Amino acid sequence: MAKARKSKNADDSKQENSGAVVRHQKLCLSVDSDTRRIFGYTELEIVVPDIGIAGLHAENLGIARVLVDGEPAEFEYYPHHQNADSERRWSSVTSSSSAADIASSLYLSALEKELIPNLLINCCKAFKVENEMQEPLVENGSHSLAEPNQNVKVIRIDYWVEKPDAGIHFDGNVLHTDNQIRRARCWFPCIDENSQRCCYDLEFTVAHNQVAVSNGNLLYQVLSKDDPPRKAYVYRVDIPVSASWISLAVAPFEVLPDLQNALLSHMCLPANIAKLQNTVGFFYTAFSYYEEYLGAKFPFGSYKQVFISPEMTVSSLSLGASMCTFSSQILYDGKVIDKTIDTRIKLAHALARQWFGVYITPASPDDEWLLDGLAVFLTDSYIKKHLGNNEARYRRFKANCAVCKADDSGATTLSSSASCKDLYGTQSIGFYGKIRSWKSVAILQMLEKQMGPESFCKILQTIISRGLDATHPSRTLSTKEFRHLAKEVGNLERPFLKEFFPRWVGSCGCPLLRMGFSYNKRKNMVEVAVLRSCTARPEVDAPFNANADSETQETDIGWPGMMSIRVNELDGMYDHPCHSKLAARRFQKPKKGAKADGSDDNGDVAPDARSSSESPLLWVRADPEMEYLAEIHLNQPVQMWINQLEKDKDVVAQAQAIAVLEQLPHISFSVVNALNNFLCDSKAFWRVRIEAAFALASTASEETDWTGLLHLIKFYKGRRFDATIGLPKPNDFRDIPEYFVLEAIPRAVAMVRAADGKSPREAVEFVLQLLKYNDNNGNIYSDVFWLAALIESIGELKFGQQSILLLSSLLKRIDRLLQFDRLMPSYNGILTISCIRTLSQMALKLSEFIPLDRVVDLIKPFRDLKTMWQIRVEASRALLDLEFQYRGLDAALSLFIKYLEEEPSPRGQVKLGVHAMRLCQMRGSSDSDDDINSSNLVALVHLLEGRVAFNNVCLRHSLFCILQIFAGRLPTLHGVPRDKTLHVGDGETGNEQRNIFGALVTETKPPPLELPPEDAPNLSSLAVPETAKEPDTVSSCHEQQQRKPLVKIKVKRSIASSRGEEGADNQTVEKSQGGGINDHGASSSVSVDAPQRNITETVSMSNNQNNLEEVNSCHDLGSRVTASIGSVKVAGEGEDLGKEFQCTADSSKVTYISQLQEPSSQGLLEDSSLCLAPETVAYSNFPTTSAVGNHDNNSVAGAESPHRGKDKEKKKKKDKEKKRKRDDPEYLERKRLKKEKKRREKEMAKLLNDEKKTSAIEFPSKISGEDKAKEPEVQPVTAQKKTNEVGNSNAVLTKVDSRPEGSEPASAATKIRIKIKNRPLSKS
């Protein structure tokens, strides 16, 4: 398998690079900081392809000469980026849609051209075949030995770079490189692709007072005899790496060797040496922990961390092999508290990327998610080990929340040709890059939960050990190889993996589960209902999965994995694991005398009101261990949420409870007291206590007598005020967790609102008092972040008639702090930044009191180029906000273009671009009709293809996203049509290359993209599923009723709730769907099973036959119970099949779990019946496409199941059942109704086909952006027609009734029955 993979990579590299393979590269450069010039040569040992032309990448270079084997050679150099006059070319841009189309064309064309080598060297003259086997000097990717008869050439290129502005940067006497995508070519000729890896010899000559830091091990340094003397630094990289990981930093650095490991070095400019010592003191713990966890020494030998001025960097981190370049902004001294955790995590993550990303590289662009996820996983393990389990779980919980909210389109698909290869690396930039990273590690953590932490650790050790193999090292990793390791080392079953990776990795979207439960006192059971839907939009993701496996095309296929339902009772906690698998929805024949809604007259009598108070349940949690990446909304009574907040020690459970209690429509005093008690609990995690403080602020109102506000003020004064004088004490921050909580209280108080939307006078006076009497004398820590939090809390205030008198006092305090920070600059200018931010917020809220011009005049001076770059950028953003608020987006856009051209720092340009994109999104969300001036659109297009955007990859991507947002499109390259954009871009940008090597043209250019044709929109495929998922109706026909799969979980119960039923329940015999359960002893375990089935699910409404088979649950005699959690989809007229959420649980094995939940405020209804809101049912339904659901391997590949024997047996059973019912008059009547319904559906299908043909004429295959935006308007019209004809039922699903043993009512939701077993409690 390994050999096949390596040869495949080699073939790919030949296709992309005309067969040229770099086996070794030497780089010798001299740096002249005074003239901002570097010059020297590079020497490459290249395997030249048969054509005799070697293609390299080079940009912004001056090529002096080229030698091949020591002889001069012909070469041609075509710079890709050339400044062009865009005013005439883009003068036709008149609308946002046309500007977005042109932006797509330019962006894709530029990215495509960057893949083509533009330095062509003729190696034919010196052709010389080497007939002997050679031991290669280096190894390129998978090549370990030279092959015979290879045309190996040594190419030397003498060149220079003068005043560079891309890839390499000068700032005074400091030089550094960045690792932006495909920018290594801007400072040395190379094959700038991740698939090309080789070893390097590096030599840099600099001034004698400077230090040159580069990759690999420092071999030696030589001082020359020149006047003035110069120093040469020689490095060697023995491990093959790609050109993008080669880095260089030259400056008068102070070198700080690590005291515990001589191979670690930390460097910064002399002014920051004290901060550096304090910042990196912990670093050896992370370095040694990674070596211990992975079972290997650091592969690159030495490791260097370089810190330079932040205005020089494009991002806060620039990664290189065995070295990382950071912004000195993350350094902090011993007096700063707030930066400690974030800086440590950032440094630990950069080190983890050295293992996974630089040393172990992805085999293809589709595998980049895996290396990114493994690096974050390794970082999380360090956080858990050294920063605490609470910190690790809280961060993972918040990241999973963000993923579930944002994973709604194909842009978040981790591994597919549409999301990786065609995006040219841009998928890792910006917001979607962060979401992809969080999603990657969440999926890996799901696999770790499945196989166990020891097995997962062993897999990582296996990956690293393969790279260290001296004979056949393998330093690439593919998704297929990792899947194989999960099977062989992790012992995961092949059918599970076959379902898991296509669903989670190869498609977008996360499951959305809405859950509720009710307690049946008579049966001593808890019934749980689950409704499932998906966060992804099927109409967005469908076109881009056309070539994927059929199982990835089905939105409702299910998400393989496992989660637990944790029941907390009076006498303990019990976990019930549930497995999510594919199974077809089963429909049943209604019983005689059954009601239209599926209930039964023989059902249990509803328990009395005492049942809720006598219930042994304290609270219930779904997926407490975050084993399943899903958005879960759980309904339970308010008191249960309070119990969860007060008694559950898990930080995720506490955060979930606070989020639900904060959103309750009616706040009771019990909720306020619970939040206050948690806030005052010093043993609770400080981050969750801060959430409780903000929840208290949101509950404060006149209805609750401002209890939340009073609790916040009392909490703060009880810890920070002197009771004798009633004023704040001098600051004392020695209790770090308490410091963070108290720091958040002023902001929480400022967010309290009265009925008129204004801040109470007490809140304004409280903030003013804290700001006025702040005293940091005698405190060993700095109060700069403390003061910044106080200042920003002023920006949260909303002044009313009573509090407007205090405005002048607050403004004076802000002005005083601005003057103070100007004389004695604070850490990173944080005080001035907070003041600017607050002034802009106050100006937006108090436009009738504060003139806009006065505020603008106050902020403008901070944009001076001499000010700190952070302050300058914050001032620019504040002015953009004011312009946007008062004059609209078009005026703000003009100001943004002006500021962008004036901003000198690359980092500031990126931040301005991101801020402008946020303003555009705000305009889109507010449905504003502001028209964008065409001159601004042309200016943006001009910036996109200009030099500034080429130098700054992140800024270029932001400009592209801004133009896409204007047209109402997603800010990503995903989904941008390739056929017309590439054609337009190639025709309008760049000069046609002169090429004396005619045969090379077709050889060097990548093959054209093969794109599926754009057909007219398929209206029937959009409309028919919409009819099937009528949101709040369920068919009232008896033949359409659905069976409720049940889970019975036996749980202990207190004496109070079971005294009257002890005799009756000592031996319980339960019947579930035809199978019986005999209880043998007091057991509290559960197992859930369902017979394996192979059923074809189809969208065709004409093939609607009910499955009348009985479900036979098979139960063990021990503590195992079986059941299944049914579909998440309400059965409509046109739907006969669905998916199930199957569970297998054993509550005797109690584990500790947690997962994302944002439950709604609805709780249990009376009489122990479950209430699911109609809108909840509506949200759980979504269209499906035809697929085959196989319960064993979950493959969806055709219309025929592989298990033919089982199908025959089932067919025989169906035939027998049909014969038995042929004489049944009710069955004949239902059959007649079916035929009538089928006839109506055929007529509807014919109507849809006619509409489709009409729409195909109206919507050609190549449509503009404006036309695309109008396409969805057709969908609801067609869907409505279908609804009127077919979906005639309006029965609203309001509850799930409990039923007696053996009854089989219908339900649209899953039911789990939890059996609560009587057990006397201790009377003590």
Automatic annotation (TrEMBL):
GO biological process: transcription initiation at RNA polymerase II promoter
Spans through the membrane: none
Name of this chain's protein: Transcription initiation factor TFIID subunit 2
Residues covered by the Peptidase M1 membrane alanine aminopeptidase domain: 286-488
Domain spans labelled Transcription initiation factor TFIID subunit 2 TPR repeats: 640-941
Record-linked InterPro entries: Aminopeptidase_N-like_N_sf (IPR042097), ARM-type_fold (IPR016024), Ig-like_TAF2 (IPR057345), Peptidase_M1_dom (IPR014782), Peptidase_M4/M1_CTD_sf (IPR027268), TAF2 (IPR037813), TPR_TAF2_C (IPR057991)
Biased composition (Basic residues): 1209-1221, 1231-1240, 1312-1324
Family (UniProt): Belongs to the TAF2 family.
Localization in the cell: Nucleus
Residue ranges of every copy of the Transcription initiation factor TFIID subunit 2 Ig-like domain listed in the record: 508-637
Bias type Polar residues, positions: 1081-1091, 1182-1196, 1277-1292
Region (Disordered): 589-611, 1026-1091, 1182-1324
Bias (Basic and acidic residues) ranges: 1241-1255, 1264-1273
One of the record's GO cellular component terms: transcription factor TFIID complex
Keywords from the UniProt entry: Nucleus, Transcription, Transcription regulation
Record-linked PANTHER family: TRANSCRIPTION INITIATION FACTOR TFIID (PTHR15137), TRANSCRIPTION INITIATION FACTOR TFIID SUBUNIT 2 (PTHR15137:SF9)
Lineage: superkingdom: Eukaryota
GO MF, one annotated term: chromatin binding
